Amino acid sequence: MELYLDSADINEIEEAFKLGFLAGLTTTPTFMHRHGITDIDGTIVKLSKMVPVLQVEALGETAEEIYKEAQRLLGLGLEKEKTVFKIPVSMEGVKACHMLTSEGIKVNIHLVYTLQQAYMAMNAGATYVCVLVGRWQDQGHDSLTLVEQCVEAVDRFGYDSKIMFSSVRHPEHVRNAIELGAHTCTVPWKVMKLLTENNFTTVGTEQFFEHTKLMTVTVNQVVNRSNNPVVSVEDTMNEAIFKMTESGFGCVSVVKGDNELVGVFTDGDLRRLVANDGKIALQKKMGELEYKSPITIESSNLLNEASTIFHKTGVDTIVVTENSKVIGMLDIQDLN
């Protein structure tokens, strides 16, 4: 099934056709008016140079006027092989369609809402027969059955026409087009961008990135050395509270001498000390406190090792060392 973009927004068109596989662009005077375009001819010529195939309106009240308008547009420099002229279905429209297709010019008979209209377009040699599914559904009609009937007519009678599924409102419409066997589907960019979306795909992809990161990235690559909350054994608890708050971590490393790690002081330790000793606890020096053996990881280790430590110990922060010297803190969120 051919996939067309349905738009007149230059920015959308440029972005969409970077995909590299879209069959072409459908546009309408309504789209151009909506985007404030006044130089219609100039815009058409510009679009024709941006896309593989351009489907553009050829309007007129009679078959002869429609034919002349298509010829006029070709005279602007549009290539016959890369241009499809859109003509609303009518007796004059299908007559003009036959006149143009007899000369090898491609035509899309659109604004089709009944099988009879589609039948006339097929007999006139229309390259495309375009059913406006969403618009017809808005009026309470069964557009999907109409598309199915049109596809069956092409197959049964051997017409060369392609059935185009248009007026796409949501991704489900694209699925409908595929299931019904439509030959072409023209889709707005906002809907097209949703066609690859699925929550389970998103979750799975995020897991792949997460696990790849764990197996290939070292602690050194993610640790922020400039945010290293360290206090000396000579510092008071007030200094530890300040460093803890300033860094955003729930703990500080306590060191002595040449940055030798003594222990880790946490916000939980702070609450317990204040609960037991009251305000006087804030005057204590960090060297007066007792510490458990600190949980550390060398900066050269992979994040996978850090993940194992987090899960085994239940802590949220690990002290990062390099040659046994404290260089920073690794938070569990850094693994994401």
TrEMBL record:
One of its GO terms (biological process) is carbohydrate metabolic process. SMART domains: CBS (SM00116). Signal peptide: none annotated. Keywords: CBS domain, Schiff base. Pfam families: CBS, TAL_FSA. It comes from the Bacteria. The keyword Amino-acid biosynthesis does not apply. Residues 223-282 form the CBS domain. SUPFAM superfamilies: Aldolase (SSF51569), CBS-domain pair (SSF54631). This is Transaldolase family protein. It comes from Rapidithrix thailandica.
